[in-house]
Design goal:
Blueprint lengths: L32 H9 L5 H19 L2 E2 L4 H13 L10 E5 L26 H8 L3 E6 L11 E2 L3 E2 L1 E2 L2 E5 L5 H8 L5 E6 L5 H6 L3 E4 L20 E6 L2 H11 L27 E4 L13 H14 L3 E4 L6 H20 L11 H12 L2 H21 L5 E5 L15 E2 L2 E2 L11 H6 L3 E8 L5 E7 L5 H13 L3 H4 L6
Parallel strand pairs: 2-3, 11-12, 11-13
Antiparallel strand pairs: 1-3, 4-5, 6-7, 8-10, 9-10, 9-16, 13-17, 14-15, 16-17
Amino acid sequence: MGRAEPVDLLSFSAQVMFMAPASSLGTLLDQSAASLLSQLAAREISALDLMTATLDRIEALNPSVNALVGMADRGDLLAQARAKDAGPVQGPLHGLPIAVKDLVNVKGLVSTQGSPIFKDFVPGEDDALAARLRAAGAILIGKTNVPEFGLGSHTFNPVYGRTNNPFNPDRTCGGSSGGAGVALALGMVALADGSDMMGSLRNPAAWSNVYGFRPSWGRVPAEPSQDRTLHQLATSGPMARSPADIALLLDVMSHADPLRPDAIPPQPTAPLAPQSLHGMRLGWLADWSGGFPLEDGILEHSEAALQVLRDQGATVETLPAPFDFEDIWESWITLRSWQVGAALVALRDNAELMKDSVLWELERAGRMTALDVHNASAKRARWFACSVDLFEHYDALILPTTQVWPFDINQPWPTEIAGVEMDTYHRWMACVVPVSLIGLPSLNMPAGFGSNGLPLGIQMFGAKGTDQKILAMGEAYHQATYWPQKYPPRLQ
């Protein structure tokens, strides 16, 4: 499939002031991860040169956005790069600099979770994800910034402060994988890990004009210390500037965990070829028949992006709400508080050091009964059964990735949307919940820019286990748009 010109999505010209100058395109750090890794493996570029360029760009750009935190020593990183060049090529990520989300413990690097409780914590060993990245040949250079304990889709915390949107520093970049999305958008890294409970890698990907993929629950193993049976809402996943690059990292992150009852044996996704969309049947769920409010322009611009899929031969049908959204929401907030509360209950003696949203989750979890959890799980089971029927008729379903545009960076969270009051700190992210509740694979795809110059995205999701199919369909969309490559941010 050839590279097409980008579609003209409504008020697109308004974002011209944020475009990178054409002369900056095509530099080493703006290449795909696949290209960099191919050159590293063939010794056409050195790990030292790539590391030097990476650290130089970080030093130049990161002070303006605060996306990367807890950086390793420059001299040590250069020494690691030299060692990669001196030894054999080992692993699919050989010599690639990667910053790991600050919810993941990395040996020798301050690992805070955005909490003052852990502001000086330096782990003596890697979490499983970090170890898997090292084993694949990656060089771990530092951390990507997160909200405190990853809660809330707005990246700020009392340890490192806030991360700015790369297209407008006065706006949020989302979260909790906000630092990862911004670092990718600015070419400070070529690949990034994220994690997603309530859109935590889809939302920031949308607001940084990159791709974020939530894999099927069970494909990427949880850390050994985490529950593998009861809590099934969150998962780690890859972020990148294309679905093809996402596939590279997904293969490294995936693992058939023998201790996980619902583990999905991973099938390789890389190298990823675009899936022809001709004859594909897609369902557009819009605002779930009024199930959740949207700010002005979100629906209009999302629907404009659907035309790309139609132009590729897909049939896109607008669907009525397939399930009662309030049942989905009530199931979600019960199971979420139960999971978050269980994870953080050991820290409740440090309540004075926690933000209000953390305390809210802990308090709700403490009031729950076993019957509350049972009823929430029963609603989840009914929605999953409904989704199984939907995917008998549709290859994928599509929703907006966010309900709002990136909001004021000084605002903790949106308290209303289109005149509708938000009754919790996370109600404004409700559009990601149908996917998260039942562990489906979902890809945020950049969907252009609004008249405000800010990016948005749409999420395409499929039946459990169709990860490769969703990514391949996303790659076809990508090759028709190239939003991250053609319209990267330019810091003013």
